[in-house]
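MODEL INPUT / OUTPUT PAIR
PAIR INDEX: 1
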Amino acid sequence: MKRLLVTANILAAFVVISWGAHRYVAPPVAILLFQDQYKELMFQCDHVMREHFIAKQMVLAKATEATVRNLDAAEIGLTACHGYEKLRKKMISWGLSENDLASIGLEAIEERATDIRKFVEIHEIRY
């Protein structure tokens, strides 16, 4: 009986320590490990999505061989978003929330936006 109680206590301690590590240790570690890569992939994905939107608008305005070819290239470029999405999901599995990821994204924008015009250009979709 005493041996069973010791085993149960060890198991309970293991569960509590594991939960605590996942809850309180993993998110800061994920930020340290993946934050810079996340910022870069976020910008790459944002850029190709903007390029795709513009290319699609150009085809809608005037479908020529050049605009269709440009749209095809932009669609291939969207594969850059795959790495971003994979990393995003990985960071969530490490315990980060959508708000944590949004904060990292805002930090990336602030780091790259040297003036208000640059900040607007980053968020602006032009067509």
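PAIR INDEX: 2
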Amino acid sequence: MAVVSVAGAAFTVTLGLTTYTDQVTSGTISTDPNIVRSVTLGGVAFDQTDLNSTVSLDFLYDEDSGMYSALQTGIAAGTPFELEVASATGTWAGAAIYVESCDMSVDAAGVATCSASFTGSVTFA
């Protein structure tokens, strides 16, 4: 089986109606089902009762008019985003994703980067 690799910069992130490209440096998308094990007369049954998704993205700081600013505005408003993370090999999407955190840091060389984490229901297509 061939392995497919996609560079982080090749991912696009869409928040609401705005698309941001070429700035993802790393990230994680996790989909964790909650499985309940029940003992029945016919044996053991497993049922999925919930599906929790989290997304974390590290990206290049794009000043006050880009992704960082949009996330800060969303945090202040307390409203969810429509989120899409797309690459050449697939797309993760969520209709109502909440920002859990958004941080900006600067290293000794003066390079500014950001980290953001989201929670909500995300599906892969």
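PAIR 2 NOTE: The mean pLDDT is 86.
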